[in-house]
Amino acid sequence: MSDRWELIRAIHSDKTGIPPNVVDYIAVRDILFSCISGISNKSIADFFHMDEEYVREVIEEFFDTSGLSVDLPVRPYFFYKQDMSGSEFADKLSEYLDPSSIMDMYLACAMFDKIKEEIIKYDK
Predict the structure, then answer these.
(1) pTM reported for the whole predicted model
(2) pLDDT confidence bin for 3, thresholds 50/70/90
(3) Helices in 37-123 by DSSP H: which ranges?
(4) Which of 9, 62, 64, 83 is the most exposed place for a label (fewest CB within 10 A)?
(5) Taking the domains of the chain in order of start, what are their residue ranges?
(6) 86 to 52, 90, 104: CA distances (angstroms)
């Protein structure tokens, strides 16, 4: 994390009372949501006019996976929110992702829900 970002998050946290980790979540939630929506790192980077390497780093930091190399024709988070079992979720994605990537995506969806809950606590 850059010194500049450390300063920005400290000032923002001080002014709003939002914990620094939640400031981080707010800063990257669109990138994270795009990933669990089945959008590739390249497409995310193109849409937000940022470097693809930065997108990959953000996804790795928050989801512990490197993201997607291709856009999916389905939206994993939609399936996740349907309260499907892990095997049902895997069945929906098995045509597009290998088993390890399916598990990574399932865990990323779960983590996004936790991140979203933390953000909502401070949404005014």
Answers:
(1) 0.90
(2) confident
(3) 41-48, 52-63, 76-80, 86-93, 99-122
(4) 83
(5) 31-122
(6) 30, 6, 12
